C-alpha cells in the first residue's frame, strides 16, 4: 500500500480506509516537573501555553500543561502522588514520550479496528464532555510503555480536552516550528520486524524506507531502521534497532538509559531552518557538533541549495539530496539528563528521504557525545 502525495484525492483515500489517520493530534510527555518543562519548551523552543489541567480545574492526581506552535501540540504531565503511574513511569524512564496521539474521524471505530487487528487495548473509547462539546478518546499499546490515543474532536471547540482551562501565561516568541515530520522509536534487537508488522497490520501503514546496518554505520556502531508511513504521507514512524559493532550504539545506549523501548526523537519541521536554529541556539538549546570537514565537499555532493553555505556551516546544519529534492536537518542534544529523548529540526525542499548521506557524520557526532558520557 503506497503512500499518496498531497496532490492526490485525499478524501477518496480516507473514505476507503477503515482506520484513517488525520495526522498527529498531540504528543504527551510524562515528566518529573511539568511546570518547569513547560517553561523550558516555551522559552527555548518557542511553544505557546494554551491550556492547563490540575487541582485548580478539578483534576486531583496530576497536572498537565498544553503547548502549541503552529500545528504541533505538546502535553507535559506530572503526577502528584508518589505511587501515581506518571511518577512511576518517570522514575523508570526519566522524562519521556508516553503518548503519540492521532486525530481520527471516529475514535470508537479506529479502536475496534485496531484491536480486531491485534492491538492490545489500553483504554476503551471514552466520551468526555463540557460546555464546549464532546471528545472521544481511545488508546492502544505500542512498543515499551508507549501508547497511541485515537482522538475524535470534530464536535469540540474548547482548549485541548474537557477538564482543561485556558492557560494564563505570558506570550511566547515562536521559532518557526510548523509540524511533526516524523516520530522515531527505538526497540530491542529483533524487535524492528515485529513492530513494523504491527504498524502495517494494525494501523494500515506501509513500509516507505528500509535502511540496513551497512547503510547506517561507522567503524564502531550500526543500526537498522524501517520507516512506516500512512496513506496520506503525513504520519511517518521510523523504527530502529541496534546493529552489530565493536562498541555500544546510540540505540543500545538509549535502551539502557530509558530502561526499555521508547520514542527516541521527534522531527519538527520548519520552513526556515537557519532562522529556527539560530533562535534556538540563542535561547540555549544545544545541538550536536559537526566537524568543519563535513562542509568541505558538501556543495559538490549535494549541488546547489538556496541557503547560504556559510550560515549552514556556522550553525552545524546537515544537507542531503534525493531524487525529489534536498533537505536540511540538525539534531539537538538530549533535552534531559538521561541520554534519551532529543529533537531533530528539519526543512524539506522536495526531498522525501531522511538524510541517508548524513548518517555517517551524524553518527560520528553522536558517538563523540557518547564517548564524553563514557557510554560508547
Overview of the molecule:
There is one protein chain. With 376 residues, the chain is an alpha+beta fold. The protein folds into two domains: 15-166, 2,3-Dihydroxybiphenyl 1,2-Dioxygenase, domain 1 (Roll), CATH 3.10.180; 177-373, 2,3-Dihydroxybiphenyl 1,2-Dioxygenase, domain 1 (Roll), CATH 3.10.180. The protein contains ten helices and 17 strands. Strands 6-7-8-5-1-4-3-2-9 form a nine-stranded mixed β-sheet. Strands 11-12-13-10-14-17-16-15 form an eight-stranded mixed β-sheet. A hairpin with a 2-residue loop joins strand 3 and strand 4 (72-79).
Major sheet strand order: 6-7-8-5-1-4-3-2-9
**What percent of residues adopt helix (DSSP H or I)?**
25-40%
CATH superfamily of the largest domain: 2,3-Dihydroxybiphenyl 1,2-Dioxygenase, domain 1
Radius of gyration: 20 Å
Strand content: 25-35%
**How many domains in all?**
2
Distance between the termini: 39 Å
Order of helices and strands: HEHEEEHEHEEEEEHEEEHEHHHEEEH
Count the E strands.
17
CATH class of the largest domain reads: Alpha Beta
Shape: globular
The tally of helices reads 10
User: Could you describe the largest sheet, including whether it forms a barrel?
Assistant: 9 strands, mixed
Amino acid at each position: 500500500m503506497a503512500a499518496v502525495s498531497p496532490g492526490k484525492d485525499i478524501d477518496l483515500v480516507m473514505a476507503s480506509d477503515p482506520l484513517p489517520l488525520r495526522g498527529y493530534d498531540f504528543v504527551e510527555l510524562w515528566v518529573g516537573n511539568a511546570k518547569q518543562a513547560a517553561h523550558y519548551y516555551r522559552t527555548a523552543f518557542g511553544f505557546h501555553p494554551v491550556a492547563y489541567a490540575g487541582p485548580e480545574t478539578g483534576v486531583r492526581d496530576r497536572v498537565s500543561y498544553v503547548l502549541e506552535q503552529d500545528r504541533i501540540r505538546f502535553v507535559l504531565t506530572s503526577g502528584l502522588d508518589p505511587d501515581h503511574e506518571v511518577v512511576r513511569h518517570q522514575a523508570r524512564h526519566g522524562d519521556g514520550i508516553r503518548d503519540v496521539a492521532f486525530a481520527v474521524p471516529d475514535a470508537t471505530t479506529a479502536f475496534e479496528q485496531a484491536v480486531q487487528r491485534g492491538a492490545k487495548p489500553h483504554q476503551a473509547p471514552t466520551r468526555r464532555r463540557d460546555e464546549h462539546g464532546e471528545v472521544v478518546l481511545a488508546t492502544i499499546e505500542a512498543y515499551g510503555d508507549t501508547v497511541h490515543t485515537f482522538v475524535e474532536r470534530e464536535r469540540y471547540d474548547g482548549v485541548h480536552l474537557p477538564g482543561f482551562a485556558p492557560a494564563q501565561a505570558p506570550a511566547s516568541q515562536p521559532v518557526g516550528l510548523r509540524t511533526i515530520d516524523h516520530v522515531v522509536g527505538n526497540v530491542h534487537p529483533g524487535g524492528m520486524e515485529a513492530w513494523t508488522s504491527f504498524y502495517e497490520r494494525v494501523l494500515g501503514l506501509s513500509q516507505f524506507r528500509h535502511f540496513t546496518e551497512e547503510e547506517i554505520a561507522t567503524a564502531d556502531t550500526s543500526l537498522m531502521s524501517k520507516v512506516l508511513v500512512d496513506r496520506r504521507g503525513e504520519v511517518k514512524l521510523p523504527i530502529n534497532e541496534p546493529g552489530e559493532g565493536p562498541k555500544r550504539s546510540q540505540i543500545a545506549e538509549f535502551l539502557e538509559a530509558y530502561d526499555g523501548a521508547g520514542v527516541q526523537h521527534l522531527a519538527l519541521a520548519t520552513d526556515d531552518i537557519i532562522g529556527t536554529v539560530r533562535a534556538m541556539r540563542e535561547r540555549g538549546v544545544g545541538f550536536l557538533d559537526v566537524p568543519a570537514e563535513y562542509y568541505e565537499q558538501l556543495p559538490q555532493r549535494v549541488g546547489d541549495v538556496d541557503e547560504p553555505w556559510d550560515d549552514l556551516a556556522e550553525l552545524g546544519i546537515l544537507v542531503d539530496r534525493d531524487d525529489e529534492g534536498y533537505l536540511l536537518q540538525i539534531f539537538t542534544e538530549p533535552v534531559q539528563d538521561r541520554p534519551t529523548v532529543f529533537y531533530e529540526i528539519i526543512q524539506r525542499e522536495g526531498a522525501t528521504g531522511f538524510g541517508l548521506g548524513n548518517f555517517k557524520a551524524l553518527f560520528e557526532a553522536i558517538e563523540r557525545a557518547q564517548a564524553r558520557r563514557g557510554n560508547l
